[in-house]
Amino acid sequence: MGDPFPLGLISFGISSVVLASVMSGMFDATGMSAVLPVAIALGFFTELIAGLLHFARGETFPGLVFTIFAGFWGSYALLVQFYSPDVVKAGGDPTNVTGIYLLAWGVMTAYLVIAALRTNLTTIVILGLLALVFLIASWGTFAGSTGIGHTAGYVLLITAIVALYASAAMIVNHTWERTVLPIP
């Protein structure tokens, strides 16, 4: 069985680039309609497949990481598509639930960083930056600050670039049967 790690990383990376482009303000909020299909197709389904393949190989940590973040992408799409608009339509404010949602993901991702300390620098950086993204996004949500939210988007873009590089390095190195692109 091949290594599903590059599949999970490229799925995460592409999904994150698309989301980060809207979060950072590079594209306006109407771009969110492009984020949701990518979140479902790549973020949810493809990361889920990568995670399940890791579990089948007996690799608990990457299996957990990819399946739990598949859950993030699926739940995020549902939150944005259904929950928030329904709350707003009913005259409510989805801020508190969204802020807690992001904070919970930040805390969970932070404890994954502790587990990642037994892996490699690239995994530590990806998860560390991602924890920071969630915590900054939560803070921006609670504060009602677009600027803080944009900062979270730029940190997510950096995270995505690291993940995409790692995926590319794994595929290139495997194909060339030697280290062409180092993975720290």
Poorly predicted spans: none
Number of helices: 6
Name the shape in a single word: globular
Counting DSSP E segments of at least 2 residues, the number of strands comes to 0
Strand content: under 5%
State the CATH class: Mainly Alpha
> What is the CATH topology?
Serine Threonine Protein Phosphatase 5, Tetratricopeptide repeat
Largest sheet: none
Mean pLDDT: 95
Assign the CATH architecture.
Alpha Horseshoe
* Gyration radius over CA: 16 Å
Structure description:
Helices cover 82% and strands 0% of the residues. The radius of gyration is 16 Å and the shape is globular. The longest helix has 31 residues, at 146-176. It is built from 6 helices and no strands. The protein is mainly alpha-helical. The chain has helices at 5-23, 32-56, 60-89, 95-116, 121-143, 146-176. It has a single domain, classed as Serine Threonine Protein Phosphatase 5, Tetratricopeptide repeat.
In short:
82% of the residues lie in helices and 0% in strands.
What's the layout of helices and strands?
Blueprint: H1 5-23, H2 32-56, H3 60-89, H4 95-116, H5 121-143, H6 146-176
Helix pairs in contact: 1-2, 1-6, 2-3, 3-4, 4-5, 5-6
